[in-house]
Amino acid sequence: MKVYEQYKKIENELNKTNYTLKDYNNILNKMGDEKSKNILYYRLMVDNAIDPYYGLMLQKTAIEGDSFNNPSDKIMYSLLTFLLKNNNYKKKIYIIGFSKYNVIPNSVTWQSSKPLDIDCIFDDIDTENEYTHDATGGKYIDVISLNRLNEITFDENSIFIIANPNYQNYYEVLKREYNINEENIFLFYCDALSERNIQYFGESFIPIGNDEILIDGGAFNLYSAFDFSRWTYGRYKKIYSFEAIESLYDICKKNIDNYNLKDIELFNLGLWSENTKIKFDYMGSASRASECGRIIVNTDTIDNILDGKEVTIIKLDIEGAEYEALIGAEKTIKKYKPTLMICAYHNPNDIIKLTNLIISYNPNYKIYARHYGYSVYETVLYFID
């Protein structure tokens, strides 16, 4: 896409919000590489535009250049969720090689008040065995043979999802023989992004020392702290881990020994902008602050807890409370300029809101953006001084 077209699309979407093209440019100019710039664009378009095409592009950008593994129906279900929940989606979708067992998506996958126009294409069926699959309540998915591809008329509204490594050559075939724009072709058949690209502590641009001190906001089960320990080869100075939900906090206490973690201080607290009590909804790993929540949790600020002590890395995955927690970390960030790893997908336009706040604390931060999920979730911002 031409830069001018991209700018116009961003401007049109931001005009619907409290943000402007100036906000976008300020962040764009601080991005550390092209991948970060692309993720910034697609993240904002996902947050503001109705078209789920941008959700697919966000995922495509995340895994571009990585190696691919065998497919999984479960992964494809996750991939398509964003499309299926969008009633305005009008584009024709072709899924090539959904599963080597010809497993059509189950009814849960296809829940939508309006049926989507989807064909599943396989090479191990013939014309006599072609059929139409009733996925749920009269919503039909056509299944056709790959050898009939040349009989199909494609247009600019055709999107192709290549869902099996055995079909990867069709990426070039679709471009060369059918004149399909490569932006409309998606390769999705990885078992798990996390197997190749560890979230938070797997990126080469993150500096590492022998005396790292981590704030682990949103501990859940301490696995991020475990990743941090492996990343530093155990040569870190201190871990401060925070888990607001008591039942998850109890799991974390057990996992300190299970993960062989040393020099760790565990808090049954939520990170916030003040020392207070707030309502929480319990939803497992997605538990979050909510005015309608039935659980009361204690909160405090990073500045209060550290009381002037040093920290070198702050990781926040706290289900939408990142902004409040960053307000409560102002003194610490200004004084020590730690590396920040901040989730930027829990609320629309968090990628702008959080960045504006952080840059006001330290305008010298360079920013990297990475996306890790098979859906529109798990976009992380990295701030490095």
Radius of gyration: 23 Å
Helix content: 25-40%
Class based on secondary structure composition and strand pairing: alpha/beta
Ranges with pLDDT <50 over ≥5 residues? 65-75, 99-115, 133-140, 190-196
The total of helices stands at 12
Main beta sheet: strand number and arrangement?
A: 7 strands, mixed
Strand percent estimate? 15-25%
Distance between the termini: 31 Å
What order do the helices and strands follow? Answer: HHHHHEEEEEHEEHEHEEEEEHEHHEHEE
Total E-strand runs: 17
User: Strand order of the main beta sheet, please?
Assistant: 9-8-7-14-15-17-16
Summed over residues and divided by their number, the pLDDT gives a mean of: 80
The best one-word shape is: globular
Give a verbal description of the structure:
By secondary structure, the protein is an alpha/beta fold. 31% of the residues lie in helices and 21% in strands. It has twelve helices and 17 strands. The chain has helices spanning 3-14, 21-28, 34-48, 53-63, 73-84, 170-178, 223-231, 246-258, 302-306, 322-327, 330-336, 350-361, and strands at residues 92-96, 118-122, 131-136, 139-145, 158-162, 185-187, 213-217, 238-242, 264-267, 270-271, 276-281, 288-289, 295-300, 313-316, 339-343, 366-371, 379-384. Strands 9-8-7-14-15-17-16 form a seven-stranded mixed sheet, sandwiched between helices. A six-stranded mixed sheet has the order 3-4-2-1-5-6, with helices on both faces. A four-stranded mixed sheet has the order 10-13-11-12. Strand 16 (366-371) and strand 17 form a beta hairpin. Helix 1 (3-14) packs parallel to helix 3 (34-48) and helix 3 (34-48) packs antiparallel against helix 4 (53-63). The longest helix is centred in the N-terminal third of the chain and has 15 residues, at 34-48. Mean pLDDT is 80; it is low at 65-75, 99-115, 133-140 and 190-196.
